[in-house]
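#dry-run=false #mode=assembly
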Amino acid sequence: MELSDSVVKGLQTLADPACFDLKSFSAFTEVAFDSLLSSTGNGVSGHPALKNIDQALLKHCHVAATTFILEAVKQNADKSTISSCLEDVKFDSEKVETFYTSYQINKRNLENLLSSIDRCPPHITDASWRLEYCIKNGHVHKVNQPSYLISFDVENGEREGTSSEVNFSCTLEQLQDLVGKLKDAAKSVERATQL
Amino acid sequence: MEEVDRILIHSLKQAGTDIDEDVQSVKQFSSELIVEAVVRCLRVIDPGLGSGLSPTLPPGMSARFRLGMSLAQACQDLGYKGEIGYQTFLYSNEPEIRSLLMFLVEKLPRESAEASDQPAGKSVLLQKAIAAQIKAQLALPWLPPSCRLPLHRKTQSPGLCHSFRAQPLSLPYSQKASTKKQAKEVKEYWREHLVPVTSQPSHRASILASLLENHVSELSAAQEWENEWNSQGLLSRLTPEDYRSRKRARLQKRIEEQLRAAAQPRPDTHGTTRSTSDLAELLNSFGGTTTGGDVLTKGTRFTHAEKFTFTQEPEKAAQQMAAAASALPSSHQSEEDLKAQQEAELSGLQQQLQQLSVQMEEVGGDIRQLTVSIHQVSDELKQRELSNSEKEDTVRVKKQTIDLLPDAENNLVKLQSLVEASAKRVVHLAAQWEKHRAPLIDEHRRLKELCSNREMESSRKLSEIKDLHDKIRQSAEEAKKKEGLYKQLITEYETLPKDVSRSAYTMRILEIVSNIKKQKEEITKILSDTKDLQKEINGLTGKLDRTFAVTDELVFKDAKKDESVRKSYKYLAALHENCTQLIQTIEDTGTIMREIRDLEEQIETENGKKTVSNLEKILEDYKAIRQENSALAAKIRDG
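#status=ok
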């Protein structure tokens, strides 16, 4: 994991036992995770256990810690990566342990948050169809061709899971084409798993 | 054979052939499967050879025949010694196919095994991760939204989505200067008023995006600086701070030049004169103040320009606005009046302008004349002063000579001695100078040499430093790669099935080896037995022959005398003959038995060749070809 100088500096301050003892460190870790997960709350500056630490330093550490957490979650870092990273900035084993336990607790939620940064196409959840038979139209006296009216129920991620419909009509060939393409897509997804 | 078939099928699967799970031996291979397997192997062995062949059997009979022929040709090109033709593929028999597949599998390149030792690239790892993720998602059943737990949110509809929108953050530290150098007010702001970063973005969703973006931009800035420092900064032999300040100064100068060039007043635009003067003013202030100001460390021309455009002082802008406003016609006079007034004003102003310009020219001419005359006069003055000092010198010399005239002879002698003494002194001084000069020159040379040596040394060290830097980077990269490889291998090792233990395999191999040894011993025993038997038989036959010869002679001798003995001799001969016949028959039986066994084996192999079914197939294919031919003929006739 690559970290910028400022993050490294902040983490080194966090590792320094003169600034953060174990108790204030665990309080700080909790606050850092909380501040990422919930927007409410006063953040670092209001916590009683962190009152006697220089506020500017504290805020710097907060930036570093939150950035580190996000990078770790982003890269799906395992325990060895995290502990080697933290040991590089001179964390002792107790602090690493404290950090890792809260990391494990909050990892899933943070992953969800990160994966919500996305543009998701609508998901098809259901389909219904009707057959329409056209006998004649305004131009031709005798058409006699079937066409299909397809309606997809889709779930839209960008608007909080509201479902809407996508309607279209197609001829037999077009429908066959669509079905073939869908099958192809399913097959290529399956092929992608067999790597 | 089962073991061999399993290995074969495994290798073929690795070469990319799609073999069903229930196909366990080569016997079950269909023609399609054989063709596919062979083509896949050919493609792996020699892409140029295999790319022209399709892995699927075409429907047309003649096309199948052609494919079989080309496959056989390709195999022969690879060096397959056995008998091969289109029939090998279309009308397969087990042993032939097995030997062909074994040949092909042996030909498969072995590098694939070695390649797995190389660290897989990041993209491969990512692809694997993606594949695993897709697999996991495919395994999950779909749930309607109402039944969905938060657990499923990640894999099924992801819920609320945001786009990646980052906002600039105000950070409680500075990238450019160390914290101690910051102004007191800034520090106080950080301590007292700065909101924690997670509360800064207006929208909750952009917290993560802003933090990530901030970090990445810091990283990339550091990386860029590192690159530049290694490529150019190190060679300039400056400390990083000096290098930065010098670069900043250079950039400022360039920007200033550019802006000056752009701000040159142009005669065709009336309005710009005012703003250009402002611009020039600003430029001056810009050159003066920015050195201490908040210029970005890695300021590009763009950032400077940006800074320039956005920091324009508000007062000046206000002034400009006021000037523009006053220039607007503020009266409500009628248009004609205005026009007439303007014309009159214009003509008056033009006249004034002309007058002024004429005056200007006159005054300019005067000034020029006057400056020329001033020059002349000052030159003259200098010359006069020079001649004056010369004359003063001559007057002094003459005065002294006049003073010396009364006692001319004495003075002459004195003067001569003086002259001699001074000449001597000059010579003496010159010698002394020479004495001093030589060591000084030597010293100079020595120092110069030292200097150049030092320079060489320093450049050598510089290159060494550069090499070291490169080495450090390389080793760091290598270490990273190795670590990645280690991790990857560990995960691979963990995912590998644990039940197939190595020891079981070795045990089995050892068992097989010992079996083979035992069999070999048995064979040698049987062989020696056979030899012994053969020897015994030979001995017995010899003995028999000899006894018979002796008995025959004895009995024959007696037979001449005695009638009964003659009879017994006859019996003896008959016995001998019968016995030989018996032996002959036994031997014949043995050979026949052997022949029977051979024939049985042959029958078995022939049965293995699926001759009947193949014949039927050939018959069908023959019919198909005939049909195709007739269809083609019909087409030709129609055409």
